C-alpha cells in the first residue's frame, strides 16, 4: 500500500469465480484460494499463471479459509465441517461431515488458545441464531443457541479470545451492541446432550442525544474500544456514513469521521490499521488506543495544564492551516487517515511532554515569519531531536514547511537543505507531495534524480513530467548542474576532440559485422546511430537522469496514457537511448551494466516496450524514426537467432560441463569433442 503499486496479480479463467477471500499461509508464505466452491488453489509470489498453480478438487463446498500465524490454515465448509489444510491435502476427496442441518453460516472467526486453534461460527435457521465452537485438532464441537431478541436481529458479529473465554459481540438491528461470553472449558457428556442457550448483555447503545448510528460493520480494537462503520441519522437531516470509535467501558462516542463518498459497508482491522473502501479508493487509517479513563472518555482532564495531544496529521491531508492538529479532550483514541492507497511508515505516537514543551505543529506555525537563517536552523534542531517513532512524521512536517515557504516566496529555495534531507533519510513521495512539484518548478534536476531513485510511491503523472523535463533540457545547461553520473560513467561512450573512444567487445556472440551478415543488410557508414549502438544519443548528465526514471516504480495502466502525450522528437530520443542501453547490455555475458544504480535489462526492455506501445503509430509515420525502428528490429532478430543457435547446442554444452567434472584436475590431456 505504501508504494501504490500492485506487487502481483493473478486471475482465474473466464467463467470461474473466486468464492471465498484469498488468505496467506504464514508458515509457507503461500496464497490459498478457492474458486467455484470446491477447487483449491495454492501458489507463491513467483508463480505467474494461476492456472498452473497447485490444484485440488474437494468433496464439499468451502465457506471460508482462516489463516492463523502459528496454527496453520483452517478450512470451514458450508456444512460446518472443519479441517486443517495439512489434513485436507493428504486426501482432498475425503468425506466432510455435515455439522449443521438447514442452517446457513453467517459469520466465522479463528483464534489460537495456547497451541490449539479454535474456530467459531454463527448460523441462522428460521430466525433463530446458533453459535458453534470447534477445536479441530481435539475433535471438539459445541453448539449453542443465541437468546432471541424481540423486534431485533443480529446484523454482524465479531469476537476475541481472552483467558479461555470467547467474547462474542453482536451488532443488532435496534442500534445496540450486545456481548456474549462463551467459556472454553470441557463439557461433560450430559451437558453436551442439552442445547445450551447463551444469554447476552447490553454492551453499548449507538446513540448520542438524538443522533443514532445505523451500523453495518463492527470490529474490536481492545478491551474498552470498538469501531463501528455505519450511517449517522439525525432528525431532519440526511443520513451520512461515518466511521466511529466508542468507549464501551464508559458508553461514550470517542471520535468519528464522516465519509462523504460512501463505503461498501465493510470494515477491516489489522495491526492497528483500519481498511475500508471510501468511494473508489482503499483508505487506510492508523489508530492508537490508550488506557481508558473516565476523564478522557468525557473530555475532562484532571490537570488543565496538561498540553494538547498533538498529532502530525489530521484526518485530512496536511494543509498550511492544519500544521497544528490537537484534540483538546486528549481522547484515548488517536487516528490518522491516509487515503489514495498511501500508507506511510509513520506511527501515531502521543508523547507525555512537559507543559512548557511546544508541539511540532505549533513550532512550525511560530516559525512562519522567521528569517531564513532562524527558520532553517530551528528545523534542523527539530529533526535532530525528534524521537525515533515520530522521525518520519517530523520530517514530513519539515518538508511541508519548506515547500510552503518556497511557494509563498518565489525567491526562496533551500536546494542544499532539501537535497540533504532526501539523501540522508528514508522518505516517500506521499510524505510531502509538494516536494517534487517545487523541484520541477525550480528545475532542480539533482533533487529530482534523488527522489526518483529513492521514493517508492511516485505517481505516474509525476514520473512522466520528470521524463519530459529531462528530455527537453539542453545538454549545455545540464553540464552546469551537479548531476550524479555514477550510473552511467562506467559504460557510456565518451567523446574526446570529436573522436569517440570505444572498445569493441564481442562477448555475447555478435559484433556489428556479424549482425549485418546475419541480417543480410549493409548499413550506411554515415548513419549517426548504427545498429551496434556505438554512439550514445545523449550526454552523461541526461543519461544519468533518464536512468533515474528507469528505476522509478510504475503501473503500466497508469503510465501509458501519459506516455502517449510525449512529443514525438522526445519519444524518438528516449527510444534511441533505450536502444543504446539494450545493445550495451547485450554485449555483456551477464547482460548487466557496470556502475551504481545502473538500469537492468528488464527495466530497459519494459520501458522500450511501453514506449513503443504508446508511440508506435507516431513512430511509424515519422521518417526520422524509420531507420531507428529498422535497426531495432534487425538487432532483436539477430539476438533471437543467436539464442536459437545456443539452444541447439545446449545438450553438447551440458555434456562438456559433465566431462569437466569427471576430469582429474592434475592430469594434462588433449581432447577433441565433435559437436554434431
Strand order of the largest sheet: 8-9-10-11-15
Unreliable spans? 300-357, 495-533
The fraction of residues assigned to DSSP E strands is: 25-35%
Structural classification: alpha+beta
Count of β-strands: 29
pLDDT averaged over residues: 77
**Helix amount:** 25-40%
Q: What spatial form do the alpha-carbon principal axes imply? A: globular
In angstroms, what is the radius of gyration?
32 Å
Main beta sheet strand tally, sense and closure: 5 strands, mixed
Distance from first to last alpha carbon: 55 Å
DSSP summary: helix tally: 18
Protein name: NOL11 protein
Pfam family, one: NOL11_N
Subcellular location: Nucleus, Nucleolus
Domain Nucleolar protein 11 C-terminal: 368-674
Summarize the structure in words:
The chain has 676 residues and is an alpha+beta fold. Among the domains are: 206-290, Thrombin, subunit H (Beta Barrel), CATH 2.40.10; 360-442, no CATH class; 457-493 and 535-615, no CATH class; 622-660. 31% of the residues lie in helices and 27% in strands. It has 18 helices and 29 strands. The strands form 8 sheets. It has a 5-stranded mixed beta sheet with strand order 8-9-10-11-15, with no helix packed on it. It has a 5-stranded antiparallel beta sheet with strand order 17-18-19-20-21, with no helix packed on it. Strands 1-2-3-4 form a 4-stranded antiparallel beta sheet, with no helix packed on it. A hairpin with a 2-residue loop joins strand 17 (207-208) and strand 18 (211-222). Helix 10 packs parallel to helix 14, helix 15 (568-587) packs antiparallel against helix 16 (601-621) and helix 15 (568-587) packs parallel to helix 17. The model is unreliable at 300-357 and 495-533 (pLDDT under 50).
Amino acid at each position: 500500500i505504501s508504494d501504490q503499486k500492485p506487487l502481483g496479480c493473478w486471475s482465474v479463467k473466464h467463467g470461474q469465480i473466486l468464492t471465498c477471500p484469498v488468505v496467506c499461509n504464514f508458515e509457507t508464505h503461500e496464497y490459498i484460494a478457492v474458486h467455484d466452491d470446491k477447487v483449491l488453489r495454492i501458489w507463491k509470489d513467483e508463480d505467474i499463471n494461476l492456472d498452473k498453480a497447485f490444484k485440488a478438487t474437494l468433496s464439499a463446498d468451502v465457506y471460508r479459509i482462516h489463516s492463523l500465524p502459528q496454527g496453520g490454515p483452517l478450512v470451514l465448509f458450508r456444512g460446518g465441517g472443519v479441517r486443517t489444510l495439512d489434513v485436507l491435502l493428504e486426501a482432498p476427496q475425503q468425506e466432510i461431515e455435515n455439522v449443521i442441518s438447514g442452517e446457513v453460516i453467517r459469520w466465522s472467526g479463528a483464534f489460537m488458545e495456547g497451541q490449539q486453534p479454535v474456530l467459531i461460527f454463527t448460523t441462522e435457521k428460521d430466525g433463530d441464531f446458533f453459535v458453534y465452537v470447534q477445536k479441530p485438532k481435539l475433535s471438539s464441537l459445541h453448539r449453542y443457541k443465541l437468546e432471541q431478541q424481540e423486534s431485533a436481529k443480529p446484523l454482524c458479529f465479531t469476537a476475541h479470545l481472552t483467558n479461555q473465554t470467547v467474547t462474542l459481540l453482536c451488532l443488532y438491528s435496534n442500534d445496540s451492541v450486545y456481548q456474549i461470553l462463551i467459556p472454553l472449558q470441557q463439557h461433560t457428556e450430559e451437558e453436551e446432550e442439552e442445547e445450551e442457550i447463551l444469554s447476552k448483555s447490553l454492551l453499548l447503545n449507538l446513540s448520542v442525544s438524538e443522533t443514532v448510528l445505523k451500523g453495518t460493520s463492527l470490529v474490536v480494537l481492545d478491551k474498552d474500544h470498538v469501531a463501528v462503520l455505519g450511517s449517522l441519522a439525525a432528525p431532519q437531516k440526511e443520513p451520512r456514513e461515518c466511521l466511529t470509535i466508542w468507549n464501551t467501558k464508559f458508553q461514550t462516542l470517542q471520535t468519528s469521521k464522516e465519509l462523504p463518498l460512501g463505503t461498501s459497508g465493510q470494515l477491516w482491522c489489522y495491526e492497528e490499521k483500519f481498511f475500508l473502501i471510501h468511494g473508489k479508493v482503499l483508505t487506510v487509517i492508523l489508530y492508537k488506543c490508550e488506557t481508558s479513563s473516565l476523564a478522557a472518555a468525557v473530555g475532562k482532564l484532571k490537570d488543565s495544564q496538561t498540553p494538547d495531544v498533538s498529532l502530525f496529521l489530521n484526518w485530512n491531508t496536511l494543509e498550511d492551516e492544519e500544521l497544528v492538529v490537537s484534540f483538546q479532550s486528549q481522547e484515548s483514541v488517536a487516528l490518522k487517515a491516509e487515503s489514495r492507497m498511501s500508507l506511510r511508515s509513520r506511527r501515531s505516537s502521543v508523547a507525555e511532554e512537559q507543559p512548557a514543551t511546544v508541539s511540532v505543529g505549533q513550532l512550525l506555525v511560530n516559525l512562519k515569519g522567521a528569517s531564513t537563517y532562524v527558520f532553517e536552523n530551528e528545523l534542523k534542531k527539530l529533526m535532530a531531536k525528534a524521537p525515533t517513532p515520530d522521525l518520519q512524521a517530523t520530517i514530513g512536517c519539515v518538508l511541508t514547511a519548506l515547500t510552503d515557504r518556497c511557494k509563498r516566496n518565489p525567491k526562496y529555495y533551500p536546494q542544499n537543505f532539501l537535497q540533504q534531507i532526501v539523501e540522508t533519510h528514508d522518505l516517500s513521495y506521499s510524505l510531502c507531495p509538494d516536494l517534487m512539484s517545487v523541484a520541477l518548478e525550480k528545475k532542480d534536476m539533482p533533487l529530482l534524480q534523488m527522489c526518483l531513485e529513492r521514493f517508492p510511491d511516485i505517481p505516474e503523472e509525476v514520473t512522466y513530467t520528470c521524463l519530459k523535463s529531462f528530455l527537453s533540457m539542453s545538454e549545455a545547461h545540464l553540464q552546469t548542474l551537479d548531476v550524479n553520473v555514477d550510473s552511467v560513467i562506467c559504460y557510456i561512450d565518451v567523446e574526446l576532440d570529436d573522436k569517440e573512444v570505444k572498445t569493441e567487445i564481442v562477448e555475447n556472440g555478435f559484433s556489428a559485422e556479424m549482425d549485418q551478415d546475419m541480417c543480410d543488410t549493409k548499413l550506411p557508414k554515415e548513419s549517426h546511430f548504427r545498429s551496434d549502438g556505438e554512439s550514445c544519443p545523449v550526454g552523461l548528465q541526461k543519461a544519468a537522469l533518464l536512468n533515474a526514471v528507469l528505476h522509478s516504480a510504475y503501473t503500466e495502466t497508469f503510465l501509458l496514457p501519459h506516455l502517449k502525450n510525449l512529443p514525438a522528437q522526445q519519444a524518438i530520443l528516449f527510444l534511441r537511448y533505450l536502444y543504446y542501453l539494450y545493445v550495451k547490455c547485450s554485449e555483456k555475458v551477464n547482460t548487466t551494466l557496470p556502475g551504481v544504480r545502473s538500469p537492468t535489462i528488464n527495466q530497459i526492455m519494459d520501458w522500450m516496450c511501453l514506449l513503443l506501445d504508446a508511440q508506435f503509430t507516431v513512430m511509424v509515420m515519422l521518417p526520422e524514426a524509420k531507420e531507428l525502428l529498422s535497426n531495432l528490429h534487425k538487432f532483436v532478430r539477430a539476438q533471437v537467432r543467436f539464442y536459437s543457435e545456443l539452444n541447439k547446442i545446449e545438450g553438447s554444452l551440458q555434456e562438456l560441463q559433465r566431462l569437466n567434472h569427471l576430469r582429474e584436475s592434475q592430469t594434462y590431456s588433449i581432447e577433441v569433442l565433435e559437436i554434431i
